[in-house]
Amino acid sequence: MRCGALPLPPPLGPPEGQRGAGQPQGTHISQDLVGRSLVIDTLLDNGTRIVEDNHSYYVSRTYGPGAARRQGLWVDMAAADSSHVKVHGILSNTHRQASRIVLSFDFPFYGHLLRQVTIATGGFIFMGDVIHRMLTATQYIAPLMANFNPSYSRNSTVQYLDNGTVFVVQWDKVYLQGKEDVGSFTFQAALHSSGRIVFGYKEIPVPVLQISAAQHPVKAGLSDAFMVLNPSPEVPESRRRTIYEYHRVELDTSKITNMSAVEFTPLPTCLQHRSCELCVSSTLTFNCSWCHVLQRCSSGFDRHREEWLSYGCAQQADAKSCEDLAEDNHYSPPPDGSSSPLDEDITTPTASLFIDSLATEDDTKLNQHAGSEGVGSDLPPNAVGAPIHTGTIVGIVLAVLLIAAIILAGIYINSHPTSNAALFFIERRPHRWPAMKFRNHTNHATYAEVEAASHEKEGFVEAEQC
To answer: Membrane-spanning residues where (predicted)?
Structure first.
């Protein structure tokens, strides 16, 4: 069956270091004390280069074309079990589309267990659970985010594999929109059940730095964010969803070449601790705190931040031991049942964006329609909006009454054409009704959801289970 589709700082460069005694020839080890990163350059006869960076949440290792480790990181889709590989018929025939896929395992991403992801034709995987207009801004796994158009060639495909322990997405022989003459790109992203992420690059015909970002963002790396509800300045009784990006890993795109690879190994986070004792005694670089009400260990900067603030967990953990937290087993929620992220001083710089704000150059819109692959169209519980206030209910009731009155008046006038009311409107009807025109703006990267269809790309047949 066919798949349903829903349509920073600059990277650290290798610092200069001194060769220590006893090190093998051609190996340089140096440490960046400010960025807390370790860089290892191995310069062998075959030109192998391995760069290791510590990004707090992940350790990344970049492998050059000659590295033996790189060869074992690439997943050969053609040699894999055909029952596990699927060619996405819609994504392979469209441009700027996205498809939601359910995984067969829980994938740890920044310490959060995720069961569904959204594949985009633009060379990235959206990891958020709430679909919004700015998919390219944050919450992504991007081996190479760019303006790819799989529909240009019959040989271009977007295919994925899920064997229960690894989920692989491969953009195979895809071309850049408007720059098809530079050649085709082939690369993949592998999400392992252990949380390890691997980017593999097979065909990169031009340097990534030469790809234009005018119509679509161009970047590679990881990003995650948390979402909170803030009062809207325009309508006091309404709430606005705001996304705060709390961490991003940006790869040096100059190192993305043919036959190269990047491996991300997840580091421990506060969320892994399941008891107060383990949480408060944690030796992680994060400032882990235990919230007795939520029974959760956190630094306060993850996808559960709004709940962490709403239940007063930040104040609850101040100068308290596990015994004190267990005794203090009562909690009075704030009057409005929520809390703003501005109630606390945020010591970690974060980038923020408003979901209902206007589009920017880093925008990717996604117009939501019904239909997905194995997923209902309802948003998850944590995506439900703020409670409806009394004023909103009164406004809805008045609007319904007004509409009902207009409908009844229309029925009366239609059934009594000679009445005074009917003659009144007939005499004053306009001779020319204004027409409204809708313009299609093409200056922003736009991803649209589409209904599931049975068509497939010519020359490619989705493998069925034997």
So the answer is: 393-413
Strands (E), 17-165: 27-32, 37-42, 50-54, 58-63, 85-87, 98-109, 112-120, 124-126, 140-145, 148-149, 157-162
- Residue 323's alpha-carbon distances to 17, 283, 320, in angstroms, are 48, 20, 8
Average pLDDT of the chain, as a whole number: 74
Residue 220's nearest CA partner among 157, 151, 171 is 171
H or E segment to which residue 166 belongs? strand 166-176
Average the pLDDT over 267-282 and give the result.
91
DSSP run (H or E) holding 266:
strand 260-266
The CA distances from residue 79 to 65, 76, 105, 159, 378, in Å, are 21, 5, 22, 14, 37
| 22 to 15, 16, 103, 390: CA distances (angstroms) | 20, 18, 47, 75
The residue extents of the domains of the chain are: 1-269+358-376+444-466, 271-343
- Residues 46/66, Cβ–Cβ less than 8 Å: yes
The model's pTM: 0.66
Mapped onto helix, strand or coil, the DSSP state of residue 407 is: helix
